[in-house]
Amino acid sequence: MSDQISSWKExxxxxxxxxxxxxxxxxxxxxxxxxxFVESYYGTEFANRLIYKAPFFMVLQLSLFLSILMAMLNRLxxxxxxxxxxxxxxxxxxxxCGSFVTYYAGIxxxxxxxxxxxxxxxxxxxxxxxxxxxxxxxxxxxxxxxTAFNRTINQQMGPIVVKRFAPFSDTALSWSEESRKKSHQSxxxxxxxxxxxxxxxxxxxxxxxxxxxxxxNSAVQLGPLELHLLPPSMEQCLLATNRSGLMLIDVKDHSCxxxxxxxxxxxxxxxxxxxxxxxxxxxxxxxLPDESPFPVDAKTLKLDPTASxxxxxxxxxxxxxxxxxxxxxxxxxxxxxxxxxxxxxKQNSRIxxxxxxxxxxxxxxxxxxxxxxxxxxxxxxxxxxxxxxxxEKAALIVMSGEEHWLSSSTPLYLKAPHKHExxxxxxxxxxxxxxxxxxxxxxxxxxxxxxxxxxxPGTNMPASFESYVNLLTPQGLSVEHIFMNNPLKHHGFxxxxxxxxxxxxxxxxxxxxxxxxPGRGLxxxxxxxxxxxxxxxxxxxxxxxxxxx
Length: 549
What we know:
Blueprint: H1 2-15, H2 18-42, H3 44-52, H4 55-73, H5 83-105, E1 107-113, E2 119-133, E3 138-143, E4 151-157, E5 160-177, E6 189-195, E7 203-208, E8 219-222, E9 225-229, H6 234-239, E10 246-250, E11 256-257, E12 265-268, E13 274-280, E14 283-287, E15 295-296, E16 309-313, H7 314-319, E17 322-325, E18 329-334, E19 339-344, E20 351-352, E21 359-366, E22 369-377, E23 381-383, E24 386-389, E25 392-399, E26 402-407, E27 412-419, E28 426-455, E29 462-473, E30 476-482, E31 488-490, E32 493-502, E33 508-516, H8 520-548
């Protein structure tokens, strides 16, 4: 027992000793120096995630707290000559306790006020993934880890699994292999190179019909010229000379045919509307081709947008200044000659176009892979106080065996299996998956009535900015004026004027930082003791030196 007491006292002396304190202060100073450089190059958030709010830095601060506390306890019972020492160390302990209370129970966020728009939500720093079913207002949320680098999560959220989280990422083009697990449909993707004497460099054009080709469309606009990527089966339909001028396409298998090839019936309704009835495999489908590409119910004439068969009029394709691409071939309508012109791509050869001296060359055509702009984890980079790299947060999720990337700027819209409570049948419903900041709802609301900004004379640099807000509480409405040195304190919150940004209509939106600091009193009192202790320590030592002199 005496050995244990002796060991404990030895540990107390070591923790409260000068050597341990010097090592801790050196480590703390080194971490702060590194953090300063990291913050300068990579931004404040990366520095917080890597150093200032990292577990090792928290342990370092706790060790400093224990060293200060034990240094004071080791010098008990109190001695008059150490009065300043006790006050300084008590102040440091109180500051540490106050900081812990603030970290554990405090709130730090911001509230964005748009002109004349009531707002009662504070945006916090915690990143979350939110899964929503808009049809019945059901949602799941998952807190994302506060990490500086990629983190594997493997967390189930309803029908999805969150695999990885990247706190910093950029969007880059990549090609993904086509999955054949669910569908054998061929989605065409292609890239082309446009050249013209009027262009300083060749223009790369990337097109895809694949539904998962995020950020890549099947059509682009280059000035007055439109480029459309279409299923190869549509080429013969466009070039056909059938009497009706109509063509039918099945969006499930991309098959295309003319009504005449299926002996379709053309009729007139009682109101003189054109009616087209197509029979395929003993199943009749009715269209009103002058009104909609979708089929209609034969009795009620209501549209059925879920059907796979569509009717299209070739006249609409002739009206446009457009180039229709089918992967390895192309066609366009020559309005001067009033006829369709088609051609096939030869290896590395160019096809001359009738617009602006354009020529086009095929560089890639595939149905086994598809392009997409997906997040790529990266290190952030800061220039002039703003991030120029790593501005997006991204997560990799898996649903029904398929991987999907989502970013903080681009949510995912998916069809997901969902089972209602009390029901056995599983249905597929629209689901939205997004990366957001967590929100806190306030028991009162703000409305920005007016934003005022003064500029330095002769410049556009803001000298000061302030917000006039209407504060609506259960007790009534009040008008508050918030500016740099005049924060609003209400309901335990302190609202500071933080920043602003341009809004619609030439006005400005205001951003207020929102803060709840339950440890503020301890930190203020600790700071007071720190100053008082330094004064007492100086006076006591000055008196001792005078006596010795």
